[in-house]
Amino acid sequence: MNNKKTFLSIKDIVFMNIISIVSLRQVLNAAPYGASQVILWCIAAFCFFIPLAMVCCELCIKYPVNGGIFIWVKEAFGIKTAWVVSVYYLMSCIVFFPMLLFFAFNSFFNLLQVENNHFLIMLCGIISFCAFTYFNILGIRYVNILNKIFIYLGIFIPILILCFLALVQISMGGGY
């Protein structure tokens, strides 16, 4: 019997949403709002991320075939609407994910003081996009592994470091 995980749990879907929406690129936008932004993110988690994950899990249980959003919309609204939704979803992914990768590599190369190297940023972005697409083709197990790596390395650990540095700043009399 194959005991390997071949499905997404509620936790996995919540992590995927957190990775794509709440990331370090949002810290700069949220900084002027201070600690109240944390409360707003918690409200978003309980009012959006968790219900979305629960709906996705419920639909996966009800329709246990491959196809995801296409199958769900087809069953509810018909095949024409399912194709339209799938095309719009694909177009949004084609725009969003490369943009996110290019932002990440641009920030990374700026930290290394490699400025205005657009070819290097483009090359790393394309290679990463192809690699992530390959992992998605391999299956859910690999997607879950990548999610866990990026949620800890890209969000939890940096936010803990930022909180620690904020506490050091406050303890040294730097104020809030």
TrEMBL record:
Query: Which ranges does the record mark as transmembrane?
Result: 12-32, 38-61, 82-105, 117-137, 149-170
Q: Which Pfam families match?
A: AA_permease_2 (PF13520)
Query: Where on the tree of life does the source sit, at the highest rank?
Result: Bacteria
Sorted alphabetically, the keyword list is: Cell membrane, Membrane, Transmembrane, Transmembrane helix, Transport
Instruction: Tell whether Ligase is among the UniProt keywords.
Output: no
Q: Where in the cell is it found?
A: Cell membrane
UniProt membrane topology term: Multi-pass membrane protein
**Which InterPro entries is this protein grouped with?**
AA/rel_permease1 (IPR002293), APC_superfamily (IPR050367)
Q: Which Gene3D superfamilies match?
A: Amino acid/polyamine transporter I
PANTHER family of this UniProt entry?
AMINO ACID TRANSPORTER-RELATED, GLUTAMATE_GAMMA-AMINOBUTYRATE ANTIPORTER-RELATED
The protein's name in its UniProt record? Amino acid permease
Name the source organism. Answer: Campylobacter canadensis
